[in-house]
Amino acid sequence: MGVSAGSRVELSSTPCVWAYWPLRMLARLGEPDHRIDVETLTRVDAPGSLAMNDIGQVRITTQLPLAFEPYRVNRITGSFIVIDETSNRTVAAGTVS
Question: CA-CA distances (angstroms) from residue 86 to 1, 18, 32, 53?
Fold first, then answer.
């Protein structure tokens, strides 16, 4: 799942590692529900993939149940990173709303 500048990532059932303080576990990313066009701040429904630095909403299924709070309540439990399980590189970061 390695990502380079300008590339697009197909997210449907993409295996990855979810890093959520203090846990690290296997997870799967679903297809993006939508992305935000940062130039117009409009919502683009069902974009199919996200490019580097895109902002979007994705459903994530984790190996184990998680306890979390929205980012606005707790910045530690409301944030996460996604790591490519083959290269061990960070490929995404996110917040829980």
Answer: 8, 13, 22, 21
Paired sense of beta strands 55-62 and 14-20, if any: unpaired
In angstroms, the Cα distances linking 93 to 2, 7, 20, 73, 89 are 15, 16, 10, 18, 12
Contact of 33 with 54, CB cutoff 8 Å: no
Q: What is the three-class DSSP state of 45? A: strand
pLDDT by residue for the chain (97 residues), tens only, comes to 333 333 444 444 556 776 766 778 888 888 889 999 999 999 999 888 888 889 999 888 888 888 888 999 998 888 888 888 888 888 888 888 8
Query: Token pair 């939508």 is at which residue?
Result: 34
